[in-house]
Amino acid sequence: MTHAAQQLCLPTVYLNGEYMPLENARISPLDRGFIFGDGVYEVIPYYDGRGLRANEHLIRLQRSMEELYMTNPYSLEKWESAINGLIAKNGGGNLAIYIQVTRGVAKRDFPPPAGLTPTVFMMANPLPTPKPEIYVNGISAVSLDDNRWLKCHIKSTALLGAVLLKHESNLLGGDEGIMFRDGYLTESSASNIAAVKNGVILCPPMDNLILGGITYVLMIELAKKAGLPLEVRRVSRKEVRGADELWIMSSTKEVVPIVSLDGRPVGHGIEAGKPGPIFKTMYQLFQNYKRELASAPPQAAE
Ligand code: PDD
Questions:
Q1: Considering just the CA atoms, what is the radius of gyration of the chain in Å?
Q2: Which strand ranges, in their side-by-side order, compose the sheet holding 39-47?
Q3: From the centroid of its chain, how far is CA 300?
Q4: pLDDT tens-digit profile of 143-173?
Q5: Distances in whole angstroms, Cα of residue 294 to Cα of each of 233, 260, 297
Q6: From CA 186, how far away is CA 157, in angstroms rounded?
Q7: Among residues 107, 151, 155, 166, which one is catalytic?
Q8: Cβ atoms of residues 230 and 203 within 8 Å
Q9: Is the CB of 211 under 6 A from ligand 1?
Q10: Is the C-beta atom of 154 inside 6 A of ligand 1?
Q11: How many CB atoms lie within 10 A of CB 68?
């Protein structure tokens, strides 16, 4: 498919309070989002108009802005109604709603000037539901040194570190990269990671070295509720290499098993290189959660 023929996003976007065709959306090249990557973003999954933990995403958006000394231009209610409008104008269905807020337009200079009007942009894309084979065959990963900055808890649009790491993972033949900092597991370029050893789910702590994923928090909750043994603690490279199971989680990928790491099968014995039993349980728990969401009233932000 040529670039021109590719659909960049669903036809209607939202820019600074207005819905419009993508072709009509214009921002200044002096927007600090363009010049400095001075902005924050969110990706919220909506299933037939029902946001999966949409409130939590909007609260994280607020926290990211606070970290950038920015004021949230919208109330929670205004975000919700703007998103619902975007969903309706694009025909509903299962959508990934992308929200970006940048500091706004200014003369190019490093210190952020006070009083700028933030630029608010939103678009919708169909949620890329993983193909069923992925749960049978899994994906491959390679280990990489995490060389991103030390404020990975901020969902910033300045994503060059993650972009390069993802590219390098693919160049090395992996579907994803598993990142380590100082010998400990952090996350993947756009998802969180859990490992399993001897029946215990091991989850890296949600500090400044990773993005505290909404899916990650949900998975931890679901695992605890189901009584699965789980530890939130630093996980060493050695533990990851010897793990029985590994999987990634995010709003767009849900939960996907990693079956090979650095060319070696994940796991042991006859189950090596296959999605493991705890992954399968987590997958089911997540699907059950989605089914409950489907029976809730539309626009429920939970
Ligand atoms: N990425 N870690 C990183 C670095 C991420 O970029 C993401 C999400 C996650 C998972 O977070 P959540 O469960 O809240 O989606 C973890 C989104 C999907 C993206 O950038 O497209």
A1: 20
A2: 18-21, 12-15, 119-126, 94-102, 39-47, 50-51
A3: 20
A4: 999 999 999 999 999 999 999 999 999 999 9
A5: 33, 33, 8
A6: 19
A7: 155
A8: yes
A9: yes
A10: no
A11: 17
* Residue with CA at minimum distance from ligand 1 atom 19: 190
Distances (CA, A) of 273 to 22, 79, 137, 260, 264: 43, 43, 8, 6, 8
In the block, tokens 């590719």 appear at: 6
Could you tell me which residues are beta bridge partners of residue 246?
Answer: 195, 258
Confidence of residue 5 (pLDDT cuts 50, 70, 90): low
> Which of the listed residues 164, 192, 253 should we mutate to test ligand 1's pocket, taking the one with most ligand atoms within 8 A of CB?
192
151 is catalytic: no
The one-letter amino acid at 127: L
> Residue 60 CA: which ligand 1 atom is closest?
14
Cβ proximity of 186 and 179 under 8 Å:
yes
Handedness of CA 217, 192, 148, 166 (dihedral sign): negative
Residue 236 DSSP code: B
158 CA distance to ligand 1 centroid (A)?
13
170-199: pLDDT as tens digits: 999 999 999 999 999 999 999 999 999 999
CB of 286 shorter than 6 A to ligand 1: no
- Looking only at Cα atoms, what is the longest distance across the chain? 62
Rounded to the nearest angstrom, the distance between the alpha carbon of 76 and the centre of ligand 1 is: 21
Q: Tokens in use for 106?
A: 């200014």
